[in-house]
Design goal:
By secondary structure, this protein is an alpha+beta fold. The chain is 44% helix and 14% strand. The strands form three sheets. It has a four-stranded mixed sheet. It has a two-stranded antiparallel ribbon with strand order 1-2. Strands 3-4 form a two-stranded antiparallel sheet. The longest helix is centred in the C-terminal third of the chain and has 24 residues. The protein is globular, with a radius of gyration of 32 Å. The protein starts with 49 loop residues before the first helix and ends in a 5-residue tail after the last helix. The N terminus is likely disordered.
Length: 414
């Protein structure tokens, strides 16, 4: 290799042309067309017969044609009205096949990963099975919230429920919804001996609505993203604490005007967390999936078990019919029943006693049958679907069916 000194007139890059006696030069790499500032050559349409172009419309709608075929089809569509109409129908059909994709993970993925980990290394203090839906739903909602900016936190949200056989609603923000979950989850926290998120705020009663309104009124400013941290920390504390209660979960949790055992209160809180997560996702135009089938089944089961008591309360208030042939029986005995069939994810069948909350559902005394999709039933129980609009398959006693659908909607509240 020849060495050059500073005065030999060479800069180390060589001349544009090789001089006499020099060896072959390696050419510099050619710049791609994209980097040259020149437009890429357009694909010229190929000449194809009408019949061939018609057969390519399906592939064109799926974007499966080559560049030349695409150019030929699109050139033809500008000249043939019949093919243009067919192409439009095919393109619309393709859009129906594509579901909006969510960036969220499969709701069941977290449960499967935890189950796999726990099979390898069981926890020293496991979380009871009845508390896992709450753990999963709060984690899913927190994942949705983590990337929200100020605009999303102040996005308007309308909370809906069913009251006095009509729809009711309350306008708030995303931050206001999390404040609502914080205060109502606080009923479970108080029952477990944890701090009440209301602190020094005094509510007129212990009902979820009264606690929420008191918290909202006491805020000098509308709730902001700052409410996320105490809500999430309270959720972690609840899950950690219930792990020490064992598998019983029979401790009473007061909602002011009624009580639930701890195991059912945790399901109730998981259900409301999912419902309000959907409210938030709708407000920011983001897709949100239902819970895993196992957790959804537990939520449906809780609602089905509460229906007889709600039916009795509505009958005492004159909101439900006693039926043409009421069959009053002693507690624990079979009575007139409605078969509630839940289809799809988390589905199953429940026999709902109609005349007494103490009666036992009986197939021998079945007078009506209602079939509903699982998510539709949950939205009915959340007050998001009016009873008259619930897409239900119905057979048998119409009054009994109407009473049960209205009772399901009456499970909802602020």
């Amino acid at each position: 290799m020849k060495a050059y000194d500073e005065d030999d007139g060479h800069d180390g890059h060589g001349d544009d042309e090789a001089g006499p006696g020099t060896g072959a030069r390696i050419p510099l790499p050619r710049a791609p067309v994209e980097d040259g500032g020149r437009a890429l050559p357009e694909a010229a349409p190929v000449a194809l017969e009408h019949q061939v172009l018609t057969s390519l419309l399906g592939a064109w709608a799926l974007a499966a044609c080559s560049a030349q075929e695409t150019a030929a089809v699109e050139d033809h569509l500008g000249q043939c009205e019949a093919c243009a109409e067919e192409a439009l129908r095919l393109r619309e059909a393709v859009t129906l096949l594509q579901r909006p994709e969510s960036l969220d993970l499969d709701p069941a993925l977290r449960t499967r990963v935890l189950d796999g980990c726990l099979e390898r290394r069981p926890p020293r203090i496991p979380v009871p099975e009845w508390a896992t839906p709450y753990d999963a739903e709060t984690a899913r909602l927190d994942a949705l919230l983590q990337d929200f900016g100020d605009a999303e936190w102040h996005a308007p949200v309308r909370l809906r429920w069913f009251e006095d056989d009509g729809t009711a609603s309350r306008r708030t923000t995303v931050a206001g919804v999390i404040a609502h979950l914080l205060t109502v989850d606080g009923t479970v926290a108080v029952a477990l001996g944890l701090d009440d998120p209301l602190g020094d705020i005094t509510a007129p009663s212990r009902t979820p609505a009264a606690r929420t309104e008191a918290y909202w009124r006491a805020s000098h400013y509308p709730p902001t993203r700052a409410v996320r941290a105490p809500w999430r920390e309270q959720g972690h504390s609840i899950v950690r604490t219930v792990a020490f209660t064992g598998d019983a979960g029979g401790m009473p949790v007061s909602y002011g005007d009624f009580e639930l055992p701890l195991r059912d209160a945790m399901l109730d809180r998981a259900f409301e967390c999912w419902v309000h997560a959907e409210d938030i996702a709708e407000a920011v135009d983001y897709p949100y999936e239902p819970p895993s089938a196992r957790h959804l089944n537990g939520m449906i089961d809780l609602a089905a078990r509460m229906l007889p008591g709600v039916l009795a309360a509505r009958r005492r208030a004159g909101l439900a019919t006693p039926g043409d042939r009421p069959h009053l029986v002693a507690a624990g005995e079979p009575g007139r029943s409605l078969r509630l069939e839940i289809e799809g994810s988390g589905g199953g069948e429940w026999l709902i006693p109609l005349d007494s909350p103490g009666a036992v559902g009986s197939a021998d005394h079945e007078v009506a049958h209602v079939a509903l999709d699982g998510v539709e039933f949950c939205r009915l129980a959340a007050g998001h679907v009016p009873p008259a609009e619930a897409a239900a398959g119905q057979a048998g006693d119409r009054e009994a069916i109407q009473d049960v659908l209205f009772a399901a909607a009456s499970l909802s509240r602020l």
